[in-house]
Design brief:
single chain, alpha/beta, 9 helices, binds magnesium ion, binds guanosine-5'-triphosphate, Rossmann fold, GTP-bd, 6-stranded mixed β-sheet, GTP binding
Amino acid sequence: MPSATTQTKKLLIIGPTGVGKSTIINQITNSSLTIGDTSAHANISSVNCSYNGIEYELFDILGWFAAESESITDQVVTTFNAYKQLKQTIQKLDFGIHMLICVISDKKVTKNDVATIQLIYEHVFSRQIPLVLIVNNKHYKLTNSSSIGWIEKHEKEISETFGNIFVGKYEMAFPKLTPLQQTAQDSEEILKEKERVSTNSKTTFFEKVLTHSLQEGVKNEASTISTSPTSPRKSSPLVEIVKLCEKVNSKQAQKEISSALQNLYHIPEQQALKEAEQIIKECNISH
Ligand SMILES: Nc1nc2c(ncn2[C@@H]2O[C@H](COP(=O)(O)OP(=O)(O)OP(=O)(O)O)[C@@H](O)[C@H]2O)c(=O)[nH]1
Ligand SMILES: [Mg+2]
């Protein structure tokens, strides 16, 4: 993929399905990307906006489905398929990306989500572009102050699961989107508070997220998606096994996946061989 040399800063928004990626873009740019019905919109669409004289193009990408599963085989297959689909979509872009924005919601983030984000950041972008985290406080309730400050409360968990990969972490909420019947009953005071939170979120996006894009984007203009291998880092067992799944056509794959299952998850040899076989079969299905 060529480097991003145009004036327009290109921002790619990724995250699991339903976290509110399209909603955030719509709220910020007053546009109307398809919400909710994932089958209705194409894999990728974009919206332009400008801030402080700089043009931005926000790319909205179809999210991945990654329900938490107890079974390691399911986790590997789900993550592999999500990663593969996302990687293919990104690799089709014929321009560079200045910044990757990862959206999660204020609910539990699954192991599959974490692994998919790490894989994309490290193995598609080779950690060459800034990565920003947005927590969409979808479940923000005016009556429940505990839903505010999600990032602060989960700071330790975020750094334990993701490591130190984000250049910025921001929280957003668009509580005006709560169900209509509830909105109809809202007092003037509540409506004002909803307006305030939404406006703050827009300001955060423009003043903080886009400022990062500008600062970091200029620095990284010539190096967006890189094909050079990333330096070896300690990653999660799930990331390690999904990486092996990329070699799924090689004869060695079953052996490698099975020994990884034994070493990383302490699964006995016979069972590991069986699970590796299953993983290879299911990963091949989507080829
Ligand atoms: N109340 C409220 N609802 C939200 C918010 N953000 C998203 N939603 C709702 O969550 C649902 C999913 O939002 P989308 O924006 O379509 O999610 P997405 O991440 O683009 O999903 P995919 O396109 O499938 O990857 C929609 O019903 C939105 O209205 C929010 O901040 N507040
Ligand atoms: Mg969407």
